[in-house]
Amino acid sequence: MAALPNCPKCNSEYTYEDGNMFVCPECAHEWSQQVDSENNEEQQIVKDSNGNILTDGDAVTVIKDLKVKGSSSTLKQGTKVKSIRIVEGDHNIDCKIDGFGAMKLKSEFVKKI
């Protein structure tokens, strides 16, 4: 049996086939099997809060104070993050921040320097 792709909207692994469509039971997203094979070749486009396209290696600034899950400290507005890496998922920026360590951020909370 061939492995089914994860949902492109919520990245759930519990997708199933329904005729010539894939369906995600968690978020109810449906997409065709033909579109899925075409999207594998495309590269993900990630934009910052101002609409600028982000790429691997860019430097960004945090635009608002962010609570760090599992910690009592916050990531302050204006914190500079160097050498970001674009990844798939809800938190689509992977980076290392001085004083915090490895972290994932949402692109909607940063702006390109």
TrEMBL record:
InterPro entries: YjdM, YjdM_C, YjdM_N. Residues 46-112 form the Protein YjdM C-terminal domain. Pfam families: YjdM (PF03831), Zn_Ribbon_YjdM (PF08274). GO terms for molecular function: hydrolase activity. The keyword Hydrolase applies. Keywords: Hydrolase. Signal peptide: none annotated. This is Protein YjdM. Transmembrane segments: none annotated. Belongs to the YjdM family. Residues 4-32 form the Protein YjdM N-terminal domain.
